[in-house]
Write a structure and sequence with these properties.
The complex is a heterodimer.
Chain A lengths: L10 H18 L2 H27 L2 H17 L10 H24 L27 H20 L2 H12 L4 H8 L3 H19 L6 H12 L1
Helix pairs in contact in A: 1-2, 2-3, 2-4, 3-4, 4-7, 5-9, 6-8, 7-8
Chain B lengths: L2 H6 L6 H10 L4 H5 L1 H28 L2 H19 L7 H13 L5 H26 L5 H7 L14 H7 L12 H6 L3 H7 L1
Helix pairs in contact in B: 2-4
Chain lengths: 224, 196
């Protein structure tokens, strides 16, 4: 029967339905059911949120906490969510604001604490490097780690807004309009930030450049 | 094509134009005609792909599926705590209430202090009054006793009347019959001195 065919639901519509359901359950006081339904949203957006947070705050523990806080905030403030806006955009905005707060707090803290430990080559060690990877051979594993480390260091060189726009546009595949909605920046400003981020990253990651981490350290020292 | 590209780049596209073309998917006609710009676009596209792969790998390496599962568990736990009404731990007030119930009555701490001060004042005043009332009738022995002396008193060893007399006499003139025999045997100091 033609009436029995299930219409495919877009991720945006699916998110909106879940959000509306959770809101209704919360209002009815059925909190166990509301949480259970909300866990669908967590499952769907958790990985993407973790990537964004990790590249934005550049610290695994901070990123983990930022993602948790963002989901908690989304759940408690779900009453303010409007279905006209995609849940993803609304949630990412919460996440980014949380990340921004963490970055600011870290900058305030860093004024009073000693600089991070350096490895024998004088480069800052990234905690992510200690984690095991599934590289096929030790050489490839080391090379991949080195490239990731260089990319992380180069991303760290970007101003916060440029990094955010680059991440959202390039890693997450968002359009300028979507990034504009998430960040609250003008669309043309988003494009400018994106281009500047790419140009700067290409410069920093070009072969023959000095180690980006060492460069970054010099820059951060000079800015203090 | 923009005028700037025509004048300054001999008609080739700027890097910004190439990036925009790649990011938006709107392919300029120039790319189909110019091999140089086509090669540059391919190079940028490859570089962007590499960076994206590296970036995603770097994040996924840190957030493994196990860590994401743990994160979700933590989120759900925190949400559960939020939904539950806050509980008040009744430990200190509970124990205090039990003590009160056991005593039957509750005495304010300030009253205990007042009672102690009143007791001290009554003690001091009573002591002074009793000292004044009994001060004139005190015997020397009692006074000595009150001063903590350990000498024997008249009550302990009664002094005979003849012994009382000895206290006031010169020992050279004293004649006690019991000592006469001994006195006879004892040489005199004067005889010993002159006799040599």
């Amino acid at each position: 029967m033609a009436g029995d065919t299930i219409q495919p639901v877009s991720p945006r519509e699916a998110d909106a339905r879940v959000a509306v359901d959770v809101k209704a359950l919360q209002a009815a006081g059925q909190l166990d059911e509301a949480r259970e339904r909300f866990s669908e949203l967590v499952t769907r957006h958790q990985r993407r949120a973790s990537r964004i947070a990790f590249h934005y705050v550049r610290d695994a523990a901070d990123a983990d906490e930022a993602v948790q806080d963002a989901f908690i905030k989304a759940y408690t403030h779900l009453g303010t969510f409007r279905e006209e806006l995609p849940f993803e955009v609304w949630f990412t905005r919460i996440l980014i604001n949380g990340c921004l707060d963490r970055i600011k707090a870290r900058k305030r803290r860093e004024r009073w604490i000693a600089p991070p430990a350096l490895d024998p080559s004088g480069l800052e060690r990234n905690p992510a490097e200690y984690l095991p990877s599934r590289g096929p051979s030790p050489e490839e594993h080391v090379l991949a780690q080195e490239r990731r480390r260089q990319l992380n260091a180069a991303l760290a060189e970007l101003p916060d807004r440029q990094r955010l726009v680059f991440m959202m546009s390039h890693f997450e595949g968002r359009t300028s309009r979507e990034v504009s909605a998430i960040t609250g920046l003008n669309e043309s400003t988003v494009r400018v930030h994106l281009f500047r981020a790419i140009r700067r990253l290409r410069g920093l990651l070009a072969p023959g450049r000095p180690k980006v981490a060492a460069l970054g350290r010099r820059v951060s020292r000079a800015s203090r | 094509m923009r005028l700037v590209d025509t004048v300054f780049r001999q008609g080739h596209l700027s890097e910004q134009a190439l990036v925009e073309a790649l990011m938006t998917g709107e392919r300029p006609l120039h790319l189909d005609r110019c091999d140089v710009c086509g090669d540059r676009a391919v190079a940028i596209s490859r570089w962007l792909d590499d960076v994206r792969t590296l970036g995603v790998e770097a994040a996924d390496e840190v957030f493994s599926p196990e860590q994401l599962a743990a994160q979700q568990t933590q989120i759900m736990k925190r949400l559960e705590q939020l939904d539950q009404p806050a509980r008040v731990i009744a430990f200190p007030s509970q124990s205090r209430r039990e003590q009160r119930d056991a005593g039957g009555r509750r005495v304010a701490v300030s009253w205990v202090g007042v009672a102690a001060a009143a007791g001290l004042a009554i003690g001091v005043i009573g002591g002074q009054l009793s000292a004044r009332l009994t001060g004139g009738q005190a015997t020397p022995a009692q006074i000595v006793q009150s001063q903590g002396a350990v000498f024997p008193t008249s009550q302990e060893t009664p002094i005979r009347p003849e012994d009382k007399m000895l206290l006031d006499q010169n020992f050279d003139t004293v004649n006690i019959k019991a000592f006469e025999a001994v006195d006879e045997m004892t040489p005199r100091m004067s005889a010993a001195r002159f006799g040599g």
